[in-house]
Amino acid sequence: MVVIAVDGPSGSGKSSVSKAVAARLGLAYLDTGAMYRAATLWCVDGGTDLADQAAVAYAVRGMPLEMGVDPAAPTVHLGGRDVAAAIRATEVSTAVSQVATNLEVRAELRRRQRAVIEAENAPGGFSGGQGIVAEGRDITTVVAPDADARVLLTASEEARLRRRSLEVHGAADASAVEATRDQVLRRDRDDSTVSQFQVAADGVATVDSSDLDFDQTVDAVLAVVAQ
Ligand code: C5P
C-alpha cells in the first residue's frame, strides 16, 4: 500500500515519467491534470460561461467523469464518451487555467482525487490495494501531503518548451518552440497563483530532468521512492 505524489510544471515530463514509475511498481496511475482538462471541456461543451465562477463550479460538481487508472492505458471518459484526445485540444489547453484557478472547482476535484487514491489503497481497485502514483500541481502539497514519496519534477525552461513543442507540434525547431512558449509560460504563471509547483515544499525531493534522458529520469524518481 503506497502513495507516490509527483508535481511539476508543463513539459517537465511528469505524465510519462509517472506512468512508467507506476507500471514498474505495479501501481495505479492518476493524471489529475486530465481531470482539470475534462472539467474545462465539460464546461465549454455545455456552453457554461467560464468567467462565471459559480456556474463553472456548479457544472463541475455534476460532471460525470470516469478516470481509468491503468498506467499502460489510462482513460478519461465524460458521460461514457472517450475524451482522451479532446482534452488535449488547444482550446482546452488555453482555457484550463481559468477553470483550475476556481477554488470551488479545486475543492471538488481534490475530493474526487482523494477518493481514487483511497480506492487504490483498498482491496478491489485496479492495483488490488498496491497503491497509486498521482501527478499534477498540488499533489505533494495539498491532495496527498502524507504520501510515502513526494517528488517535484523540474526542468529548465528551454528543456520544457522543447518537450512540449515536440508533443504538440511534433517538432522542436525554433518556430515550433516559439509557438508553444506563450501558452506554456502563461499557463505556468496562472497555475502558480493557486498551486506550489515551481519550488519544492518542505520534505519534497526535487528531480531536475533537464540533462537526463527518459530512463534516467524514471530511475531518479524510483531512487526517491526507494529511500
Ligand atoms: O498537467 P497538465 O498540463 O495536463 O495540466 C493541465 C492543467 O490542469 C494545468 O495547467 C493546471 O491548470 C491544472 N492542474 C491543476 N492542479 C493539478 C493538475 C493540473 O491546477 N493538480
What would you note in describing this structure?
The protein has a five-stranded parallel beta sheet with strand order 2-6-1-7-8, sandwiched between helices. The chain has a three-stranded antiparallel beta sheet with strand order 3-4-5, with helices on one face. Helix content is 50%, strand content 16%. The model has no long low-confidence stretch (mean pLDDT 95). The protein has a single domain (2-226), classed as P-loop containing nucleotide triphosphate hydrolases (Rossmann fold), CATH 3.40.50. The protein has 227 residues and is of the alpha/beta class. It has helices spanning 14-25, 32-45, 53-61, 90-100, 103-120, 139-143, 157-169, 174-191, 214-226, and strands spanning 2-7, 28-31, 65-68, 75-78, 81-82, 131-136, 149-154, 205-208. The longest helix is centred in the middle third of the chain and has 18 residues, at 103-120. The relative contact order is 0.21. The chain contains nine helices and eight strands. Bound molecules: cytidine-5'-monophosphate. Cytidine-5'-monophosphate binds at residues 10, 32-33, 36-37, 96-97, 100, 136-139, 187, 191, 195.
